[in-house]
């Protein structure tokens, strides 16, 4: 609940307008008043290790939300898929051959068509310099990869609860 004088509702309204103008699926649905829980969420996982996508897919399978998951194993494919798949959320690994996650993040956040797509860095790196660089380049969150199947299940549950359930307007 926002307090009187809070800028949070204004900021949220501005974000919805930006989403709607850019034509992102989440923004259109929210701006039109469609409850977020009435549709399937779209998640793009960008990681050169296919096992990561498999572990996360299993984690989302039993969750409360319907989640359609696509996987890109390199940065160039990721940028194409962001435009064609119109994800509600991108999980982006940093360490990939060719175009790495830092380059992909900068490309996403510098393009007005993809700027509003929430992008979570999903990396094994716990180095402060990497984390700071990602936030400086406008990542929405930084998540360290879990080390167990149970960790992936909890991560999927937390992503669902925070990024999908609380996105209701």
TrEMBL record:
Gene Ontology BP terms: phosphorelay signal transduction system
Matching PROSITE patterns: RESPONSE_REGULATORY
Top-rank taxon: Bacteria
Domain spans labelled Response regulatory: 42-160
InterPro entries noted in UniProt: CheY-like_superfamily, Sig_transdc_resp-reg_receiver, TCS_response_regulator
Keywords from the named record: Phosphoprotein
UniProt keyword Phosphoprotein present: yes
Keyword check for Membrane: no
4-aspartylphosphate: modified positions: 93
UniProt xrefs under PANTHER family: RESPONSE REGULATOR RCP1-RELATED
Protein name: Response regulator
UniProt organism field: Phreatobacter aquaticus
């Amino acid at each position: 609940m926002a307090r009187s004088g809070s800028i949070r509702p204004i900021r949220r309204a501005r974000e919805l307008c930006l989403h709607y103008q850019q034509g992102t699926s989440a923004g259109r649905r929210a701006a039109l008043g469609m409850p977020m829980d009435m549709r399937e969420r779209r998640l793009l996982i960008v990681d050169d290790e296919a096992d990561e996508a498999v572990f996360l897919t299993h984690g989302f399978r039993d969750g409360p939300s319907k989640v359609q998951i696509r996987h890109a194993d390199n940065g160039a494919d990721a940028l194409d898929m962001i435009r064609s798949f119109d994800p509600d959320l991108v999980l982006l690994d940093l360490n990939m051959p060719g175009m790495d996650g830092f380059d992909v993040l900068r490309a996403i956040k510098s393009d007005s068509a993809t700027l509003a797509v929430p992008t979570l860095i999903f990396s094994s790196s716990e180095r402060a310099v990497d984390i700071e660089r990602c936030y400086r380049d406008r990542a929405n969150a930084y998540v360290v990869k879990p080390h167990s199947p149970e960790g992936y299940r909890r991560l999927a549950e937390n992503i669902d609860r925070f990024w999908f359930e609380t996105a209701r307007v």
